[in-house]
Task: inverse folding
């Protein structure tokens, strides 16, 4: 068990809808990362927060947004959902400042999103 | 050219064999190298982490980095059926970048009993 908790495990929704994925990082970890995993694209970095502040953006669509709360949990909001958004969404956390190289990531078990 | 290339497999070997998994990369800014194992319907699990050229050993696993060739490897000795999973290499750039890891697409490994 990595210590990173993601809810819900599965989510089925219709096109055009909005969903919120939740992540609780490992105790003591200040950095939270969101990744999307699809069969054709592999693991793609979406966005990263450190101690409540956004620190980096990857291939995140404008329809997607995230935030990290004072208790360090994070939420990823996906809106105007399309069929192509169906994927596994992973949260990962790390202890150190993202500027440090010594920050291996620890992943949760993901949320499987199916858009119908 | 993708930043990280990894053969997706599947790679099927008999139990007890030595397994070699590899990634190549194109950007010399990558300075930190990791291997993750991912079982079906689970999140990636960190196996090995290294930041220098050479070998690092942990039990049956050895990670090898050759920065001059931009080539990294993971060796698994005495492979077991429980090693059957997808193995992902992950690389991180130096210089204080906060953009997470760049992953290979993963190699699907099957250990035949």
Result:
């Amino acid at each position: 068990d990595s210590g990173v908790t993601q809810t819900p495990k599965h989510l089925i929704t219709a096109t055009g809808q909005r969903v919120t994925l939740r992540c609780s990082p490992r105790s003591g970890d200040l950095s939270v990362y969101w990744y999307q995993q699809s069969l054709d694209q592999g693991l793609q970095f979406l966005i990263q927060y450190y101690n409540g502040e956004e620190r980096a953006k990857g291939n995140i669509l404008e329809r997607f947004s995230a935030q990290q709360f004072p208790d360090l949990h994070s939420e990823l909001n996906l809106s105007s959902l399309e069929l192509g958004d169906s994927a596994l969404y992973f949260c990962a956390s790390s202890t150190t400042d993202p500027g440090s190289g010594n920050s291996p990531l620890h992943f949760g078990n993901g949320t499987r999103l199916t858009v119908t | 050219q993708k930043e990280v290339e990894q053969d997706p497999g599947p790679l099927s070997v008999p139990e007890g064999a030595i397994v070699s998994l590899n990634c190549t990369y194109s950007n010399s800014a990558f300075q930190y190298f990791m291997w993750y194992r991912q079982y079906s319907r689970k999140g990636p699990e960190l196996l090995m982490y290294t930041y220098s050229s050479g070998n690092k050993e942990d039990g049956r696993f050895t990670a090898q980095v050759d920065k001059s060739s931009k080539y990294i490897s993971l060796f698994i000795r005495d492979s077991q059926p429980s090693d059957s999973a997808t193995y992902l290499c992950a690389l991180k750039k130096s210089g204080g970048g906060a953009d997470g890891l760049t992953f290979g697409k993963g190699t699907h490994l099957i250990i035949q009993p």
